[in-house]
Amino acid sequence: MRPISLSDSRPKISTMPRPQTEATAYLNLYKLSIEKKRLQCELDSIEQRRHRIQKRLSFLESQVAEMQQSAQVSTPKLVSVEKNSAPDSALNMLFLEY
């Protein structure tokens, strides 16, 4: 067996561009059509996701409105207390030490 040299494993690079043939043009058309289909599918999936998100948001907004309404109904009315009804000296203070 002969040893593998570095020159054998390197790819051959040409600085000259490939000639524009009919096959190259068809290959480029194929690549563009494939990319167009991929992007269209991606756009469709984004639209479907957007629709699901909007549907969920509207559902959440309706639930928040219902909960706010039920909270207002179930909350007892607070009676306002006059400042002069209970003087500060009437409060009993208790100090606890830990």
UniProtKB/TrEMBL annotation:
It comes from the Bacteria. Residues 29-70 form a coiled coil. Keywords: Coiled coil. This is Gas vesicle protein GvpV. It comes from Leptolyngbya boryana NIES-2135. The lineage of its organism: Bacteria, Bacillati, Cyanobacteriota, Cyanophyceae, Leptolyngbyales.
